[in-house]
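During the second year of the project, the team shifted from modelling isolated chains to modelling whole assemblies. The rationale, set out in the original proposal, was that interfaces cannot be judged from single-chain predictions alone. As a representative example for this report, we include one of the complexes processed in the last quarter. Its constituent sequences, exactly as entered into the pipeline, are reproduced here:
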Amino acid sequence: MNMDVRPSFLLDGEEIPFEPGQTVIQAALTAGHYIPHLCYHPEFVPHGSCKLCTVKANGRPAAACTLPAQAGLEVESETEELNDLRRTLVQMLFAEGNHFCPACEKSGNCVLQALGYDLGVMTAGFRHFFLDRPVDASHPDILLDFNRCVLCKLCVRASEEVDGKGVFSLAGRGISRRLIVSAESGRLADTDIAVTDKAVEVCPVGVIIRKHIGFQTPIGRRRYDVRPISAQALEDAPRKPEARHG
Amino acid sequence: MAEAGKLRVATTSLAGCFGCHMSLLDIDERLFALLEKVEFDRTPLTDIKHCGPCDIGIIEGGVCNAENVEVLREFRKNCKILIAMGACAVTGGLPAQRNHLDLGACLQEVYLTEPGLVNGQIPNDPELPLPLDQVHPLHEVVKVDYFIPGCPPSADAIWKFLTDLIAGRTPRLGHGLIEYD
Amino acid sequence: MMRHQDLHPSVDEVVALHGGDATRLVQILRDLQEGQGWLAPPVVTELARKLGLSRARVEGVAAFYSFLHLEPVGQYRVLFSDNITDRMQGSEALLAYLSEKLWVEKGKVSEDGLLSIDTTSCTGLCDQGPGLLVNGWAIPRIDQERLDQIAQLILARQPIAQWPDELFRIEDNIRRQDTLLGHGLQPGEAIRAAIARAESNQGDRPVSERSWREGIPAATPGPAATLEEIKRSNLRGRGGAGFGTGLKWEACRNAPGETHYVVCNADEGEPGTFKDRVLLTRHADLVFEGMTVCAYILGGGRTTTHGFLYLRGEYRYLLEPLNECLARRRRDGLLGADICGRTGFDFDIEIHVGAGAYVCGEESALIESLEGKRGIPRNRPPYPVTHGYLGQPTVVNNVETFCAAALVAKEGGDWYRAQGTAKSAGTKLLSVSGDCERPGIYEYPFGVTVRQVLEDCGARHTQAVQVSGPSGTLIDASEFDRRIAFEDLPTAGAFMVFDETRDMFDVVRNFVHFFAHESCGFCTPCRVGTAMMRNVVDKIHAGRGAQHDVEEICRLQKVMHLAAHCGLGHTACNPMRDVMQRFRPAIQRRLKSLDFEPAFDLDGALAVARQMTGRDDAKAHL
Ligand SMILES: Cc1cc2nc3c(=O)[nH]c(=O)nc-3n(C[C@H](O)[C@H](O)[C@H](O)COP(=O)(O)O)c2cc1C
Ligand code: SF4
Ligand code: SF4
Ligand code: SF4
Ligand code: FES
Ligand code: FES
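Output from the structure prediction step:
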């Protein structure tokens, strides 16, 4: 297909071509333009909950991960106002959960943390909730540390759509919204999860942790030590319209 | 009083491990460059007991007991700019991992009911600062102007931050310098 | 009045009753609980297995709704309505009175498992409050005497079915009626009028050209012509957003699909709103008539149609009367197959009962709930008109909107739009409550001034009016000449009056708590933002407020306004915004310092240590 006839929209003044059916973030990443995101994962149908990817489309705020690309749309993303919003959202997530990075196996490979670095978040700033969220260590191979959950639902989606299991779900409402597992006992050991499940791999933060392999990569060589998430996300972005589950 | 042209800086460690101060010292020979610009008031390196009027106060560690609160208030009162340095000052850090436990039950277990303990007693010496029921990051107790995350922040991060600040720039740590661990 | 409680139906029985249909999960959970009191873990496990769902999915749904319990609850569950109007009528003291009388702490189950006492969001009894729910059944006009009676019934372990009907009697309190409440329509009249309506006013064709081209058979002008009247009427939705009803119906009608769904939104969760309650009590036929007209227009004989009425859990007591009305309409040929003798016009309505979640009033969350899921608002586009219930084209309208549509179908668009203002056609029902002599339902043509309403309801020394509930607008006395209309003060119906004795900080604090309690938790800005807002407001309330907190409020407002996923998060800041703009001193005078104050009492934080060490010296205090 001739590139010139592909429809396109403007992102911070640059023309972004897209395939029909793509959302703004999908088209932007494919075209090599980063928009911060947390709950969006190229292999899954966009969820639209974290709001890190908020942009202004023709002046109106919208989540870039769920906003269908449309010809002629004028999208702003790299503005002080929007980055300020994103910083505040990251701060809110840090204040909501109990994130003690120095003791977290995900540190260095964690999307939330990397977003904080990239956006220049120096502190949660808000009062911490210090919610009590006990850890589930019942499973021989997998640890669940609910303290770090950002409620992106990726594990729920992966378990249902890829693993065909339904090990996880989100329950509760408002600030009590929480991750639960599919067992009457409430213990991960009593579910049919396997360490090879997609659900185990997909968590962007340090909730679903594979045991016995912690802290393997030395500091300095971990994923976001090497390059900031804004560069890494483009590295990972599918170059073609992606295959999606679900 | 500060020497003409020099900024007066105070530092202290509250509920911290001195890791951040070690990192501060780790700026090595740049310390001399720093000393051209600043002079120290109360720090663990000087023997000034109370913080006087300062331009910058740098605090490591969170707030876990009554004494921490007093010192923090003294710093806030005397320092034009207050900086929280390190994970513990910024988030409560390791000590805040006790926030889910009931302090009463903790004291009870450690000093009274722990097996093997004979004639246990909870220390009640008035010289010992009383613990707060929870550990707090600094900004939950006083207003904090700047934060340097990291456990500890690297010497480079501290150096970059302070030189920016002293030069009157908004401190910015780029990739590799902002670290939360 | 029926207040039966089935005797412990088994999971099998309830599942069978619902045809094993997992989209009916919320209804199944309600029914199971109505018999068993709560949803015990093995029940959830068994239910998940029977429905072929993951256990986590079922538990997740149950844990979403306030009225579903995964923990043991008291045999009698007393929930005090906690709207600001209830509080103004003394609900807090009454709750304390009952707790003390029955020896049970708020939020806990009594030791013998007999009862629990707690609060719940506005129950829609504001004109005859304070209200409460006992095991889901609404009781108005609570006072000590009635509480004594309730306490006795509980202690005597009387089944609720045997409690005196008088306790449960709810008044309509219609104070002013206009063309809607005063309609003289007989059941079926509007439907027959719609069917009989011929294509009229050829000159106006362009407005509806699209639907013409969709290929309505020339022999059935009724649907298209009636749609034309709805559009001509300029009727706009009464549920809050004010979207053009004709346009919505047309878009849905034009959307391809196997079945077109008509959904009546009777969730009425906005605190201070109770006009749908009265419409459903007094004018259920008109509501169903409007839905049937809508189905007639959507289906037009081309596709099948089906209807739902989503009734908020608090109005559970209306379920049986409404079902009776539906049954009667079926008998009269106004529902079911070949409605009004018209071959192929098949339509029926089923009622789903909510389970305590304000967000389920948001139309896409409502649809999720109808599908047996947690009430989380969907990503849009696509919109319900094209992809609604089970992905099919769906119209969602407010109760009052359907009533007005039925009138339009009978009397015509021109008749309708001759009422009200140029931009706001027709009349509006207001639910008036708070500081006034005659709270209740007032119907006015659009354009009425706030002052007029205040005069009519006997409000004196009014300080402020909350128009359209917490998500609406709070106005002060300088604005009482403003008009109730889409172009000035749009409203879903709430009209709460506060006189000069009220502290507007208490009002806003109540609303802030409401939103924190009702946030669905899906998106970061609202989930965390509403909870932070609650914490800040409580901090100010506790006398620890500082200028710093006011700045934090502004910051949270900005984030929620910019980035929240649905209307709940967008409007959750409105009360605070309005109080800061119009009643600033109510906040300012509560601030302890102009700079910074910790959120907690530092000296209090040492109390445990003091007690454990037995110290009380100077250094043991801060
Ligand atoms: C949080 C929230 C709660 C809502 N609650 C209701 C409600 O209880 N009743 C209602 O009719 N509309 C409610 N709405 C508006 C609906 O989303 C929808 O716009 C309305 O039902 C459409 O009907 P209408 O066009 O007839 O007004 C609510 C919206 C939001 C965002
Ligand atoms: S999940 Fe990420 S942000 Fe949270 S503690 Fe671990 S590394 Fe830090
Ligand atoms: S556990 Fe991980 S993947 Fe699952 S919802 Fe929480 S943060 Fe997302
Ligand atoms: S704004 Fe609030 S209610 Fe709406 S989706 Fe977000 S969390 Fe849920
Ligand atoms: S990435 Fe778009 S909302 Fe999370
Ligand atoms: S003392 Fe510096 S991070 Fe803990």
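Strands of chain B lie at 7-13, 38-40, 54-60, 63-65, 79-85, 131-136, 146-148. Chain B touches chain A at residues 84, 87, 90-94, 96-97, 99-100, 134, 137, 139-140, 144, 146-149, 151, 172-173, 175-176, 178-181 (CB under 8 Å).
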